[in-house]
Design a protein that fits this description.
Largest sheet: 4 strands, antiparallel
Structural class: alpha+beta
Strand order of the largest sheet: 1-2-3-4
Shape: elongated
Number of helices: 3
Helix content: 10-25%
Order of helices and strands: HHHEEEE
Radius of gyration: 18 Å
Strand content: 15-25%
């Protein structure tokens, strides 16, 4: 498990009883779709949240906006948001592919009058956005 704490700290090994709260928590499957972790909560070291904290609530409500590119702008920071949170606002992606635990999803729009726009987001194996692959407007 990892956290945002100082990596220079030395590792410590402790022994806990198999029925202790710590041992039970460590055996529980990590499901980030339920809720983001609190700042002091441990997450698996291969989860984006071990390096980038959850960005918090949207800066403004994107739901009333009509264009998908406007919704993505209103969502603010995308890195650290869960796929389900993004999809609840932007809808089902046009392209959604997974390989080796990495998910790549593309949302977009095409219009003769307002132009075309698309964004590609890359998610870790827990469904947390790790980076913006590309954003294109033409």
């Amino acid at each position: 498990m990892g956290s945002l704490s100082d990596p220079a700290q030395t590792e410590k090994s402790i022994t806990v009883e198999a029925t202790s709260p710590e041992a039970l928590e460590a055996r529980r499957p990590f499901d980030p779709s339920v809720r983001p972790p609190t700042p002091d909560e441990l997450v698996p070291a291969d989860c984006v949240w071990a390096y980038f904290p959850y960005p918090g609530p949207f800066p403004r409500d994107p739901r009333p906006l009509s264009r998908i590119d406007q919704k993505f702008v209103a969502m603010g920071t995308l890195i650290g948001r869960h796929f389900n949170e993004i999809a609840s606002i932007a809808g089902i992606p046009m392209v959604d592919m997974s390989r080796d635990g990495i998910r790549s999803s593309v949302w977009g729009r095409t219009s003769l009058w307002t132009g075309s726009w698309q964004i590609n987001l890359v998610f870790d194996r827990y469904g947390v956005c790790a980076r913006v692959g590309t954003e294109t407007a033409f």
